[in-house]
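Exam review. A common question shows you a sequence with its structure tokens and asks you to describe the fold in words. Practice with the pair below. Do the first one on your own.
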Amino acid sequence: MTPELGPEIATEFWPLLVGLISLVAQVSAVGHAILTKQDAKAASAWVGVIVLVPIVGWVVYLLFGINRIQRRAEELRAGGHETGDLALPPAGVSALTTRSPEATRQLTQMSTMGRQISPVAYVEGNQVDIFDNGDQAFPAMCKAIEQAQHSIALSTYIFNNDSAGKQFIDALFDAHQRGVEVRVLIDGVGSHYSFPSAYSLLEKLGIPSARFLHSFMPWRMPYLNLRNHHKILVIDGKIGFTGSMNISEGNLLHPANNHPIRDHHFKVEGPVLRHLMGTFAHEWHFTTDEVLTGPLWFPQLETSGNLMIRGVPAGPDMERNPIRWTLLAALSTARHKVQIVSPYFLPDTTLRAALSLCAMRGVEIDIVLPHKNNLPYMQWAMTPQMPDLIKSGCRIWYSNGPFDHTKLMTVDGMWSFIGSANWDTRSLRLNFEFNLECYGEELAHDINQRIDDRLASATPVSLDQLKRRSTLERLRDASVALFAPYL
């Protein structure tokens, strides 16, 4: 008979087994970090944690070091576009004309880089009109819905069941009743910003609606990210609205409300409408499996202005985020002036370096942030990065008045970048966003005018002001800034 293992042998055996498992896990974790971390500092830091903290190190890496967001997004959205109408002509060089040969060369350089960043074509003959706040935007959007004859596609992050939301619901229901094809896509998290949600009311009224990556299961953590942050409305495939404005009564500054939100939205006409509608159709198909195709959604489009524009969709399922790379490209080609407005300004190390180098070349850079953020922790996290930017020559301003949710950027009075994306990790890594890259002096002038209006009453942020913060404030801000990649 084989003798049973005694307690002494078991006591020696289990530590050996645990050590062997830990060693294999350590080696595997180190290999994964080396192969997948593009940032050498991040890879070195994780290797140090894994090797120097036995057992606990590789467990921490398993929980927090692996980029499951991008992998999950790639798994969810494998296969790409499946609607034939989304096929666009190859990006070609447009006949860019401006007031000076230097400006033409600069825009040509920018568009050349842009074609490498994203395959979406630049299209000419577009018109963009700016709306200030929901007071101007909401009536125009609801009127367009009321005049729709064939189709309505609406995608939004937040659709509140409040006075503003009910205006949209009424207009959408009337359109649905008269036979217009209506599709409404609301983000799964954004749909819960009001109770009861507007989605449940739309569903009750029989309006075709869906929620993007909606789940009530809290352990499905990736769904707290991977948000659809688009703001897109397309009427009959011919008139579009996009920008940074959610559907909420907070965007109505008149009459005054308790939590006013300053913002801008844009009406778009011309061939670029195909990009707005194509982006919506992609997300709708992903969410519902319904393919939106044909002239009902993609009619023939005529030129409507003199702007050259393209849509820039971006998300964590893409190897390189096109919006982030477009920001870097714009800063690398700027010659005279850059103006930026963003409510959440947490650029990564590379973007901060690009801003600093741009300012060091003598480019005037104005960055306008809200004086009082609607998310206090964002205000705290943004503060520690300011001294280096200011030392490099960037001018940072706090805008006065209501919380400013606007996202704007212009370069040299010729190039504009508008849409849903913020200058933070959530927009440039974790969310699905949609921006418009616009070439045209008139639009850039109108946007700069609105930014200059902010600067006229804004408060400059100085190094002395930042140094005067108490030790506790600096400690608080620096501590919160450590979590910038997750805010």
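Now try the second one, then compare your answer with the model answer below.
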Amino acid sequence: MCLQAGWGLIKDQYWLFLGMALVGILLGSAVPLAILMGPMMCGIYLALFQRRRGETVEFGTLFRGFDYFGDSIIATLFHTIPIIIVMVPFYIVFYGGMLFITPDRRHGGDPGAGALLGFFGVMVVMGLVMAVLILLLAVVFAFAYPLIVERKLSGIEAVKLSMKAGLGNFWPLLGLLLLNGLLSFAGTLLCFVGVYLALPVTFAAIAMAYEQVFDLGQAPTPLTPPPPPTF
């Protein structure tokens, strides 16, 4: 399992990787459209790959992700813009529906039970569709930053190859992302503290999945990799 392998990768330096993950997420979220998230993710995966190769990892490795600034921004925009496009209709319907069903007290207005049920039913369906689409995007973009770091691909090339690898390994990778999500959800039971504690493990699990698919350190290949058997 990639989660188990990921934990084995970082457990001896867990607090270092936790600090890198927290700072990376904080800085990456500080700028609109998550522009800085790309360099931060590149820095995290660079550190994970160094660890995997037995090299010395320092906290400053996180900021070496800025060496891939331009390419990482391209990958980030390719990922975040579709997410925004997916989310916009949901919020338009949500706020529009809220205005529609909000009672007009001046005229004694009061939405019927049918209108309320219909509104919430539509929200549930749209929310599920939005979640599925965002999860699909996560699958096809899972390897974009690792490819930029490990294979020195351009942002567009990394996105293309990540999409091929994600689709070629769809079900195992989907299962891994769902497990990562469940681990993060379990962390919410600890007043959200566990969500942050799980971050380095989830990143390490993706790094181990990348190694299974692309053979860490090998020359790049344009072919779609075969599905790994042990996700």
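Model answer, second protein: The radius of gyration is 20 Å. Confidence is low (pLDDT under 50) at residues 218-224. Full marks require stating both points clearly.
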